[in-house]
Amino acid sequence: MDNYTKVLLDESEIPTQWYNVVPDLPTPPPPPLHPGTREPIGPDDLAPLFPMALIMQEVSEESYIDIPGEVLDVYRLWRPSPLFRARRLEAALDTPAKIFYKYEGVSPAGSHKPNTSVPQAYYNHQEGITKLTTETGAGQWGSALAFACAQYGIECEVWQVAASYEVKPHRKTMMEIWGASVHSSPSDVTEFGRSLLADDPQHPGSLGIAISEAVSMAVEDPTTRYALGSVLNHVLLHQTVIGEEALLQLAKVGETPDVLVGCTGGGSNFGGLSFPFLREKLKGKMNPTIRCVEPAACPSLTKGEYRYDFGDTAGMTPLVKMHTLGHSFIPDPIHAGGLRYHGMAPLVSHLYETGLVEAESIGQTECFTAALEFARTEGIVPAPEPTHAIAAAVREALRCKESGEEKVILTALCGHGHLDLAAYENFLSGEMVDHELSQASLDTAMAAVPVFD
Ligand SMILES: *Cc1c(COP(=O)(O)O)cnc(C)c1O
User: Fold this and answer.
1) What is the pLDDT, as a whole number, of residue 119?
2) Which of 42, 156, 214, 289 is positioned for an S-S bond with 133, CB 3.0–4.6 A?
3) pTM value?
């Protein structure tokens, strides 16, 4: 088993439980607050938005939560996902490091997002909900939820950020193939959307705005709920199937990681990959460095402030303590649409604050340079988001080349880029530019965050 390229698991080895990292943490993350009373919210406050099963997972103190059989049945369409050893990339980099990537692009929607969209649709269906609303930036989450809703026969209505709606028409088509209806956001179907369009008919939209629109439609209708594709504890929980499988796969080839790197938009693929390894680290069984990688244009961990802020632009969601660039922040239009969110998962923010994980930011031209080298050696065309993870893995591998260290590097290739070829065209034609976040735009957005703590 020395010259393997990929490590596969048997269908019977799909994890049957999700791992909740919260009980294992040295200190608990601060609770979400009610936007009106500023007191910690209770399950009832979230009931207009989410089904009770997901709310209970959101606040759970159990270490493990059983994955329902009906969810496992759908997971089996693409799980277990393969773990690859990037031997051809290693050779091209001339590094003594071993690079492993867990490939989540094998799901129907082409990313890790169905790991959570499927249980979310399932629990809503179980509780009699007939329709889910959501937002989508790059279109990945919208397609994942559309696919999941189709599995359980519920409706799906998606607000796609206007800028992405324009440049990613095929994502909209995918959502429609799976039966969803799709609006460009800001849209004329919500009051908030209409008010923004009145000011600027060409408004490019943002994830925060699209969340406000989707939330407002859900709270109006008792048979409709809202679904979020990242950031929340229950989303990160569902994604831990990635890390649990990767742990097993590395064990099969006798490896333990020295460095884990993952791209972070809201933190779900990163949390999903890293939490099971963090558990092992906290138990003293291994000691990997765990690092978040974010875009230089939207660096919520490395440049944002750790404080209570809204999850959406209109200020309708609970207040969560997270690294934030300010809920009114609209990032530059980098190609990694899935990483253009103003905040970071409270759990990942808390881990960063407590020093259990590190973070770095990388500009998009370095990311696409690394992605091209990856595609030309490993074959897979990465989605723009994981190009950040690949660039970070390449940085680490090149450091190993300097030092001669034979580190084991693990990352998640959390989606393929088949519907993102416009980004590659932009790069190949030499037109791609790096957007550094200016202090002025950061100051403006942070000034709009009320002081809660
Ligand atoms: C949505 C998405 C991301 C960003 O979300 P996380 O919650 O940070 O994982 C990253 N990569 C891909 C492929 C995505 O679809």
Assistant:
1) 98
2) 214
3) 0.96
